[in-house]
């Protein structure tokens, strides 16, 4: 028989192959393995069941447990080898009876091994790879014996449903009249056991149709047996497969591999997917966390390409959103239990919100460990892989969990297809047989008798209420079918479609057409961008308790990455949070700072851990974490949470200082007027006539103006008041000093005129006196005019002198003009002082030299002191200093020049006679 098949196989090769598949041979023992009555019992059992469809039964194992080596009887022959009883025939699966015609040959063995596959011939074959089992027992490499084959355990009913969805889609396409009419699609469905080694093995099988365990000596040079591949579910096995099939140009369309790394077309040019990349999910999760105000979270991930790349994308998006991650732990279900326990302990003792970018198998292990010990409630934020897995709903500690999942969908007819199973139909597939026994055997390990009704079964396999990823499988098959259709079919003139099923379609052709597919199926659009990714749309799923405490998936919001950033996230329903609360959980390192304070990052900690410090002067904080400076004309309120207008301050008539200065000013003017009245009433008296009455009246008038001009410095500054106050002050004071200077010159000239031969008085008579006063005053008026024309004073708001208020004051405009006015006044005062000092020893009855000297001394002292006081006084006190200088110098002139004369006029009239004056003058001359 070996020669007929063209295969040369040695005895050792057969033994080695059988050994790899857990089919061990044993040497004859002294004590038979089975007694005769054992053999007879098994022979009767085999004879009774070998021709029945329901020939698969439990063989020495407990429900939910893998077959153990000690319970396996490798080979028990009956009747010369025509019947063989296999104990736990496939690794990790239940035992089965298999009828063999003749002796055991390699062809018979290969035929049996093919029962691990679900195949269907067609014109074009599509491969399917799913993680129908999620755990592989670790092989102990002792290097003293041949390693045992990989043993897959832990059936995933949802993944089984994915594989059935592929078969359903293929059969639906085969019955279609518009898509590939007359063409039949075939399929090969493989179980990768969520394992990289198994995925690599499957990739080789799909690439050339040759199982690497049977080395026939042929080269891998033939064309691929499949035109495209649907799967795998996990990212890491997918990457491993792409390393093999990618160089061969075989396109792979995944329904569940979401790693963002797979979008790299340089590394994975043949990869497509119908599920969005984790790059979008990571951004959506970060946006979700920021939306609910969580700034202090924990993160766990699968230690795989899916978890590591997904978490890396999330951490980057979280950093951009200002979210701090307290810890980021990685683990895998293949890690030692101590590692999973450590991750669980970290979760129990830290942040309230936990983001889990974890595969379903890894998450199942973690939650089982979390369930083992009482754990404080945590708000779980899940990635799509596990947060929409119905099998995970049994973990009540995740009640209130939220996460983004693929949109729910409806596949017409799919539920009927899933339920179209019977004991007779499942007997041809070990995978379906295992599912059937697991679904109906239950914990009681009941033997299936053919009366089971799948219509009554409540299991993830039959649950079509949450067809999310299942629809991604459905869309992937249709995408491949559309690509093949565009190659082998063409539309004729009469709108009929003609397809050539004999056309030799290469995978590279399908790859090229997949890039351009764009169609709609059951209302769902299917297309790929330049990276082979679809448009990212998600539903926000919330785990809510319903009737009798059962957890269910409830859609509470949506996220569409194709919309503008501010429109992507939309909440539709209320979320039920952890502990069945309606209040959003709080998860922050530091509470938000109250208004009026700012954040100060704690040394050595993330930016989310901070102390609250009061804002500095002039700064506020409201709803922000930092203080901001108020605008120039604003100042913080007492709480420093808002800016208010600064009060405007100026020297007002209504405040105490303004009232005092006003009273002094008006009082001084009244005294000057009263004195003028007294002088006028006694204008014919000796003392009035002896003191140059004309200049005295003019001096009193100018003093009254000096007193009154100070009023222009009080009140709200305006454009006119600013110009008036400085010009009026400058002109009136020059007029006043000019009069004093004129009186001084008259006295000096009069004394000189008494000398023999002097005619000085004719050169300084009344006309010359008037001209002198007018000339001096005109110069000041000219200076003021130039000042007003070139750069006049103007009102300004001074916000710098006081931080908390604005000083409304007059800017001098031109500093040169201002100091020129003051300098001219000072020059005249100095000249007057010098002349008065020279005339101090003249007779008292004819001059006022002494009083003028003292008055000028006071005047100069006041204004010399004024300069530093004016420069250093802040705000409105600058104006008060200037008013004080005006009033003080005016009173100095008034009291020294007029009060003594008024005293004589009013209280010593006997001295107000010409005789008295002449006598006193004579005495002074003799002296």
TrEMBL record:
Keywords: Cell membrane, G-protein coupled receptor, Glycoprotein, Membrane, Receptor, Signal, Transducer, Transmembrane, Transmembrane helix
CDD domains found in the cross-reference section: 7tmC_V2R_pheromone
One Pfam family it belongs to: ANF_receptor
Gene3D superfamilies registered for this protein in UniProt: 3.40.50.2300, GPCR, family 3, nine cysteines domain
An annotated GO BP: DNA integration
Similarity annotation: Belongs to the G-protein coupled receptor 3 family.
Name of protein: Olfactory receptor family C subfamily 4 member 9
Organism from which the protein derives: Salmo salar
């Amino acid at each position: 028989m070996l020669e007929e098949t063209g295969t040369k196989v040695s005895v050792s090769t057969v033994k080695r192959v059988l050994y790899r598949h857990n089919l061990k041979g044993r040497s004859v023992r002294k004590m038979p393995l089975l007694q005769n009555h054992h053999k007879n019992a098994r022979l009767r059992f085999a004879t009774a069941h070998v021709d029945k469809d329901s020939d698969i039964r439990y063989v020495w194992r407990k429900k939910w447990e893998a077959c153990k080596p000690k319970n396996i009887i490798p080979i028990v022959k009956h009747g010369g080898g025509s019947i063989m009883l296999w104990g736990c025939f496939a690794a990790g699966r239940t035992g089965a009876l298999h009828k063999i015609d003749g002796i055991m040959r390699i062809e018979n063995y290969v035929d049996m091994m093919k029962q691990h596959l679900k195949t269907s011939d067609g014109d074009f074959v599509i491969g399917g790879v799913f993680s129908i089992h999620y755990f592989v027992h670790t092989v102990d490499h002792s290097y003293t014996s041949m390693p045992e084959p990989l043993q897959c355990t832990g059936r995933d009913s949802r993944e089984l449903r994915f594989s059935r969805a592929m078969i359903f889609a293929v059969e639906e396409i085969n019955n279609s009249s518009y898509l590939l009419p007359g063409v039949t699609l075939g399929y090969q469905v493989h179980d990768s056991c969520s394992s990289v080694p198994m995925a690599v093995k499957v990739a080789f099988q799909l690439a050339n149709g040759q199982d690497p365990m049977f080395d026939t000596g042929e080269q891998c040079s033939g064309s691929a047996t499949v035109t495209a591949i649907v799967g795998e579910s996990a990212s890491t096995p997918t990457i491993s497969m792409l390393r093999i099939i990618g160089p061969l140009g075989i396109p792979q369309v995944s329904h569940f591999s979401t790693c963002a790394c797979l979008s790299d077309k340089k590394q994975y040019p043949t990869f497509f997917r119908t599920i969005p990349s984790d790059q979008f999910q990571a951004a959506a999760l970060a946006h979700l966390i920021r939306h609910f105000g969580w700034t202090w979270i924990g993160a766990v991930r699968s230690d795989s390409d899916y978890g590591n790349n997904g978490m890396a994308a999330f951490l980057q998006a979280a950093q951009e959103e200002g979210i701090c991650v307290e810890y980021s732990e990685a683990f895998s279900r293949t890690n030692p239990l101590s590692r999973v326990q450590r991750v669980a302990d970290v979760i129990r003792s830290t942040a309230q919100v936990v983001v889990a970018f974890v595969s379903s198998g890894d998450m199942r292990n973690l939650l089982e460990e979390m369930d083992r010990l009482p754990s404080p409630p945590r708000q779980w934020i899940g990635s799509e892989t596990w947060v929409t897995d119905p099998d995970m709903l049994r973990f009540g500690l995740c009640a209130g969990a939220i996460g983004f999942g693929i949109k729910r969908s409806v596949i017409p007819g799919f539920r009927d297809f899933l339920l179209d199973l019977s004991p007779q139909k499942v007997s041809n597939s070990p995978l379906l047989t295992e599912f059937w026994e697991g679904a109906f055997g239950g914990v009681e390990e009941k033997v299936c008798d053919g009366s089971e009704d799948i219509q009554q079964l409540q299991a993830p396999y039959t649950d079509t209420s949450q067809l999310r990823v299942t629809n991604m499988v459905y869309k992937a098959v249709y995408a491949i079918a559309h690509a093949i259709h565009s190659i082998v079919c063409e539309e004729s003139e009469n709108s009929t479609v003609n397809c050539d099923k004999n056309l030799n379609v290469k995978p590279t052709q399908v790859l090229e057409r997949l890039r351009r597919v764009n169609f709609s199926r059951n209302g769902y659009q299917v297309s790929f961008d330049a990276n082979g990714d679809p448009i990212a749309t998600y539903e926000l799923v919330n785990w809510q308790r319903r009737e009798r405490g059962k957890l269910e998936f409830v859609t509470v919001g949506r996220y569409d990455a194709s919309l503008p950033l501010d429109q992507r996230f939309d909440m539709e329903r209320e979320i039920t949070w952890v502990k069945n609360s309606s209040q959003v959980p709080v998860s922050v390192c530091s509470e938000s700072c109250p208004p009026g304070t700012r954040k100060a990052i704690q040394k050595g900690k993330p930016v989310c851990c901070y102390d609250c410090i009061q804002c500095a002067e002039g700064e506020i904080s409201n709803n922000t974490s930092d203080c901001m400076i108020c605008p120039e004309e604003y100042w913080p309120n007492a709480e420093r949470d808002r800016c208010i207008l600064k009060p405007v301050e100026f020297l007002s008539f209504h405040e105490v200082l303004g009232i005092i200065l006003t009273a002094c000013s008006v009082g001084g003017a009244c005294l000057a007027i009263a004195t003028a009245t007294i002088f006028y009433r006694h204008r014919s008296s000796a003392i009035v006539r002896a003191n140059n009455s004309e200049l005295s009246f003019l001096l009193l008038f100018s003093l009254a103006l000096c007193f009154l001009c100070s009023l222009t410095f009080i009140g709200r500054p305006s454009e006119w008041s600013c110009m008036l106050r400085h010009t009026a002050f400058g002109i009136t004071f020059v007029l006043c000093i000019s009069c004093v200077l004129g009186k001084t010159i008259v006295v000096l000239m009069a004394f000189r005129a008494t000398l023999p031969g002097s005619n000085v008085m004719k050169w300084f008579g009344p006309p010359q006196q008037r001209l002198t006063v007018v000339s001096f005053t005109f110069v000041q008026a000219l200076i003021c005019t130039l000042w007003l024309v070139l750069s006049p004073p103007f009102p300004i708001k001074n916000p710098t002198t006081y931080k908390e208020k604005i000083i409304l004051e007059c800017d001098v405009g031109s500093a040169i003009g201002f100091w020129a006015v003051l300098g001219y006044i000072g020059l005249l005062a100095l000249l007057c002082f010098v002349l008065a000092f020279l005339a101090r020893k003249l007779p008292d009855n004819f001059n006022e030299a002494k009083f003028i000297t003292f008055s000028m001394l006071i005047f100069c002292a006041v204004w010399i002191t004024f300069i530093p006081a004016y420069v250093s006084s802040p705000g409105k006190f600058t104006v008060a200093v200037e008013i004080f200088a005006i009033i003080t110098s005016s009173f100095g002139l008034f009291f020294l020049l007029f009060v003594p004369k008024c005293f004589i006029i009013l209280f010593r009239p006997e001295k107000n006679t010409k005789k008295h004056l002449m006598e006193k003058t004579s005495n002074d001359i003799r002296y």
